[in-house]
Amino acid sequence: MSLLKAISRKKKLEEAASLDSNLRRCLGLFDITFLALGQMMGAGIYVLTGTVVRNMAGPSIIFSFLLAGAAALLSAFSYAEFGARFPRAGSAYTYTYVGLGELWAFVVGWTILLEYMIGNAAVARSWSAYFDTLVDNQVENMTVGAFGEFNTAGGFFSRYPDFLACALILLVSVAISLGSRISSNVNSTFVILNIVVSIVVICGATYADFSLWTGTVPNGNYRFMPFGVEGMLSGAATCFFSYIGFEMLATTGEEVKEPRKTIPRATFLCISVVATIYILMSSTLTLMLPYEDVHPRAPFAEAFDAKGATVVRYIITAGALAGMSNNLVAGVFSLPRSVYAMADDGLLFKFLAQVNKKTQVPLNAIIVFTLLNAILTLVFDIDSLVEFLSIGTLFAYSIVSACVLILRYQPAPIGNDYKRLDNGGTLRAWIPFRNFWESLPAGGSISIGVALLVSSFFSFIFALKLELYGSVVGMLLLSLNLLVPFVPFMPCLSLLVNVAMMAHLSYLTWIRLFIWMAIGLIIYFAYGIRHSKEARRLTTIADMRMSSTFSHRNTLKQ
Predict the structure, then answer these.
(1) Could you report the per-residue pLDDT of 31-65, keeping only the tens digit for each?
(2) What share of the chain is helix, strand, coil (3-state, %, to 5)?
(3) Does 449 fall in a domain?
(4) Membrane-spanning residues where (predicted)?
(5) What is the SS3 string spanning 7-68?
């Protein structure tokens, strides 16, 4: 029972909602909006678009980006609500600590660290590869000639050490270590350049040929949707990861001037801007060339080159490099702050929470995880690891949506701005088995409801995947869920979308995640569970109560 209490202890709401912080609050609406745009606008549009157009969706990629943006917005609403109510560094980690407890918080936080490291490594390697195409693969040839090949193509390790990508990670980390304001300014410069280049690409609509969207293809499908609805939906699942980055708005919660107003506004603003640019750019691309002629690695640059616009090709290349630099700056900025949040709570080693007095950034966290990130970038094959991005991100998004459902109905104080106690709501008279639900501990009915909801989603999706449309288990769980009070539509829909995507991941992805989580759990049970700040707080409260009881007994005796 003591172990169960330890892993389920929750961060105190008043502490989580406090605006007090050791970090400097210096970022405004446009600062964090540009940081999120920097995380989103890059490899997702300049590299991913070519593959989706050519192999998955064709011109219907515009609907793929639209659906992916809608799915991202659903998760973003949950993040925005949490980021406004509990403005602390750590994003989904902190939210889970408040809503579900310490062990789940550590699991989510540990997954987010992996997500950021792999994301940074993937972007750095993409930047290196894109640059290498400009110099006719001279970087690759020189490196292989000097050091030989580590592994064959497609293996777990990279074919050759990517020193350029490694150096890029180190360089960006140096800029980040100089302080939030400097890193924000650097990122904003890249975003402005990237938006200008995006406008140049959209101007490519002067080459538009709408006949490329009409007619049919040999398989009988319309040319606009050559791979059918299924291809468009597969493209949407892939394009979803072009929107990854909005969660870092909540990660900056301790450095934003007015987080309760700024974070929700920035969330809606950045997703709207990115979705609009992605749709316009992909429309331009598919109107310039037949979908089967689109280059998979450098689609926009090669499209302008095919039209004889050589100067524009180099401008686009510069924009692609700037966009991926955006991704890298935002990712390297967010990683140490997530580490800081966990270390400050005592779940990771204490020295990682030390803040440099001069720059007011978690310098030790930056140094340690930059070195780990650089090694990952240097020697590992990113194609074999990038699947972690999907499962880690979707897992974190799902937990946050579940936390929104649970916290909305928890009988607990909600922030310092509220003068009342939220009693969690009451059950309506028509609810079946109402006496049973009301007999549960406070918040018990909603917790059971969320568990049934997620289970029914998984069963339903797997039933569809296996073509078991009459799945008894799925129908039973869906029926049981109807006995629970209805809960907010948005978080439920977000959960359904995320579960649907996770259910289609390969078993190897899950195995790799389990290995990473095993390492993290060893750290937690060997160190974090005993050094948790929340554990010390609860111990102090217990000691005070014992001392008070002892004093009271002595008084009675006297």
Answers:
(1) 777 777 766 776 667 767 887 888 888 999 999 89
(2) 75, 0, 25
(3) no
(4) 27-49, 61-80, 92-113, 160-178, 190-207, 227-246, 266-289, 361-381, 388-409, 442-464, 476-501, 507-527
(5) HHCCCCHHHHHCCCCCCCCCECHHHHHHHHHHHHCCHHHHCHHHHHHHHHHHHHHHHHHHHH
**In which domain, by residue range, is 146 found?**
15-407
- pLDDT interval class at 85 (50, 70, 90): low
* CATH number of the domain enclosing 284: 1.20.1740.10
Number of domains in the chain: 1
- At 310-362, the pLDDT tens digits run 788 787 777 778 778 777 877 888 788 888 888 988 899 888 888 877 777 78
In a domain, 138, yes or no: yes
d(CA 435, CA 331): 49
Angle, vertex CA 107, rays to CA 102 and CA 112, nearest 5: 120
Condensed to tens digits (0 to 9), the pLDDT of residues 174-192 reads 887 776 555 555 555 666 6
Task: Decide: 492 and 481 in contact? Cβ < 8 Å.
Answer: no
Alpha helices in 309-362 (DSSP H): 310-344
In a domain, 495, yes or no: no
Close Cβ partners of 328 (under 8 Å, ≥ 6 residues apart): 42, 120, 123, 124, 127, 168, 169, 172
Both tokens of residue 44?
């997702």
Looking up tokens 């950045």, which residue turns up?
Answer: 270
The answer to whether residue 287 sits within a structural domain is yes
Sole residue written with tokens 């499962």: 391
Please tell me the distance from the alpha carbon of residue 214 to that of residue 224, in angstroms, as a whole number: 6
